[in-house]
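call fold(seq) -> tokens
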Amino acid sequence: MKEQITSRILMVRPSFFISNPETAADNHFQQDIPSLTFEQTTEKAQQEFDGFVDKLRQAGVTVYVHQDRSQPKTSDAVFPNNWVSFHEDGTVITYPMFAPSRRLEKQQEIIDEMIEGLGLEIKEQINLGKYESEGRFLESTGSLVIDRPNQIVYAAISERTDPDLVKEFADSFKVKSILFTANQSVDSQRLPIYHTNVVMCLANDFVVICLDSVDDESEKEILINTFQETEKEIIEISESQLECFAGNMLQVKNDREEEILVMSSQAYNALTSEQIQKMESHCKILYSDIETIETLGGGSARCMMAEIFLPEK
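ret:
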């Protein structure tokens, strides 16, 4: 695990898009859009997806797009980063998913076609799906935010992020794990945020994080100290900005080795000019309008991109 960012990403174009009631149980970002029919939501999601891909490709990022199958209907297929990860040593991991309906997203066909299409190599495949029958879950880079050069994995514990499975991942890759709990206010309660990558984005030289969501002061101190030790500039966002997906960003690079911070239009518009200036001091910013996907899916730009670190053949 040496390179923090990649120029290759996998994205899955939805053939069906609607809010998933199974994931809404603990994803408090999901909302309905009652004014739209199913056909309208699918069409809008596809338009947003295509526009996002076009922007990434125009910026010089390699995007491998898989068109999702029409059956079975998988309403969250647009978020592939939750079920698979591709690593620099040639390892591919598929993960145990919290919602039974989302387990249908895991398709070997997607992996095989991508490998063939991009001329990449797989040396080992690991399937952690056996843990689903035990009620234990780990949703890939939704659950795991990885600092590859410094060999650290950050994970906010929730129903979708089992602490023992985080440690198993860390042991497998010989990295250090830092576990914490991140909460959001829902109906006057403090409830766990479903994914780590909603809370924080780790880039080459900086971290965007909502420290206000970490209620335990000792956990917060550990995070701050670790960021400082690994020389990451801390760019804090508020809980209201987090709710606009300002933590759900991903840094990538293009074919000219330029670093780009990718986010949604909603996330960008929620940032202050000072925060934008800090981010732009490190890299370019790219944003795209994915409002329908964010509202109904409860995920944003980072969730739509599965990073590809696999070696070439």
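The two ends are 18 Å apart (CA to CA).
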